[in-house]
Design a protein that fits this description.
Layout (H helix, E strand, L loop, with lengths): L5 E9 L1 H46 L1 E2 L13 E8 L5 E3 L4 E3 L3 E21 L5 E14 L24 E4 L12 H4 L6 E2 L6 H6 L7 E3 L2 E4 L11 E8 L2 E10 L2 E3 L1 E2 L5 E2 L1 E4 L4 H34 L1 H7 L3 H24 L4 H10 L3 H20 L5 E2 L2 E2 L8 H9 L2 H6 L5 H9 L5
Helix pairs in contact: 1-4, 1-5, 6-7, 6-8, 7-8, 9-11
């Protein structure tokens, strides 16, 4: 069964009137997306400013203290502590009897199961009807959670069993950093990037407790017959840990623990990093992460907004598939938009927004009706700006430009050439005399 996959194709035809009805439903959904994307962008900008102000506030208030002593005078203040964090009692997984000494132990479970992929091709016919061909492909793969096969288009023969084990995290309760005792909220901020390998001899002890075939391969527990040829329902279990070692914390001193510090700007500050880092370094990392998250949410919001606009304008595409004169308008808009986009690429306009819209929308006829005027207007404004050219090594951007001999005559009286006092080439001198511009 390993590596086996199958697929089937469904073909449907949707009438033009049914497409019109669906397009207006898409308009409603597009309006929801536009409203949601606007709210997301607005909230993201506020969140970014609030986080930036909170970090700036925390940077000015943080106090670096030594881990050897808990000073009661710093109770409730934002403190920075770094040093070696250790936990004595080993962390144990009771189901697999895996024990490690560290700050956190994470069990990751994957199951070999069916996955469904869907691919649709659409073709518009005469009269506005649409033929759709949807191919459903099923293949086997490892996944960290169970995929509900009851939602498959064809669930028969693609049943996924329940997972026998799930992901679990264990956190040390006796961790110490000098005189401080960081608790679970602070320790879970440390990344578990070190693999805890299971010894092959541990498989014998597990077979007495766990039914079914079991093996230990490459430090991981495999529940199945052959790891090279997995079957549906096979499990792959691995462990990762946060080892004892140097770490840095910033938070509100609460006794000997670190808690969230409420800033006046609105955010709560509690940070933890592996390794020895100073307070300015930790705030710099937090600011970079905030900036990265801000741009990521901006991209998501703009993408959702674009989808919303596409859905709002979707009825135009459906109508253009049936009504001839609207189709010709849409086609002509597509032609002019394509031409303006090519012109922008040739002239390398310094205002790329309209050109970029033209390049993207030139293949989308329904949106081209709206995008082309904006793109062409920006392109024309860019064309009216004087081009910066260099002639004979001189900047002639402020010179009048004509054609042929008249252009050469204008250049002969250009301030750039007279200011530099360079010799005028013979071609310019003869043209200038002809037009009365040379003494």
């Amino acid at each position: 069964m390993s590596g086996v996959g199958d697929s089937f194709t469904e073909r449907t035809r949707t009438s033009w009137f049914a497409r019109i009805g669906k397009s207006f439903v898409a308009v409603l959904f597009g309006l929801v997306l536009l409203a949601g994307s606007s709210v997301l962008l607005f909230w993201n900008e506020g969140r970014a400013v609030q986080t930036e102000r909170s970090l700036a506030e925390g940077r000015g208030l943080v106090v670096t203290v030594e881990p050897a002593r808990v000073d009661p005078a710093n109770e409730g203040k934002l403190v920075h502590v770094n040093g070696d964090v250790t936990a004595v009692a080993p962390l144990r997984d009771p189901e697999f009897r895996v024990a490690v000494t560290g700050l956190r132990l994470i069990r990751t479970v994957e199951m070999y199961q069916w996955k469904e992929e869907e691919h649709t091709q659409r073709h518009t016919t005469l009269g506005g009807s649409e033929d759709s061909s949807t191919t459903y492909t099923y293949h086997l793969a490892w996944n960290g959670s169970r995929i509900d096969s009851s939602h498959f288009r064809r669930p028969d023969g693609h049943d996924n069993p329940q997972m026998r084990y799930t992901r679990t995290t264990y956190t040390a309760r006796d961790a110490t950093l000098g005189a401080f005792r960081p608790s679970e909220p602070a320790l879970r901020l440390l990344p578990a990037n070190q693999m805890a390998r299971v010894a092959p001899a541990h498989a014998e002890a597990l077979r007495a407790r766990i039914s079914g075939p079991l093996q230990v391969i490459d430090g991981r527990i495999y529940l199945g017959v052959d790891p090279g040829q997995p079957h549906i329902g096979d499990h792959r279990i691995s462990f990762s840990t946060v080892p004892n070692g140097p770490a840095s914390f910033i938070g509100r001193q609460s006794g000997a623990d670190f808690a969230e510090y409420q800033t006046q700007s609105g955010d709560k500050l509690l940070m933890a990093r592996s390794g020895l880092m100073s307070a300015p370094e930790m705030f710099k990392v937090a600011e970079d992460e905030n900036r990265m998250l801000t741009w990521l949410l901006r991209a998501v919001g703009l993408f959702v907004m674009f989808i919303g606009f596409a859905l709002v304008l979707f009825p135009l595409s459906v109508i253009a598939d049936f009504v001839p004169f609207i189709g010709s308008i849409v086609g002509r808009a597509r032609y002019w938009l394509h031409w303006s986009a090519r012109s922008c690429s040739r002239r390398r306009s310094s205002r790329p927004l309209g050109c970029g819209i033209g390049r993207w929308y030139r293949s989308r006829s329904s949106l081209s009706v709206w995008a082309w005027p904006m793109a062409s207007a920006r392109w024309r404004r860019a064309e009216r700006r004087p081009a910066r050219k260099r002639l004979y090594g001189l900047d002639t951007s402020k010179c009048r430009m004509g054609k042929g001999a008249q252009r050469r005559a204008h250049l002969s009286s250009c301030p750039a050439m007279t200011k530099e006092r360079r010799p005028i080439p013979p071609a310019l001198r003869s043209s200038a005399r002809r037009y009365g511009r040379w003494p």
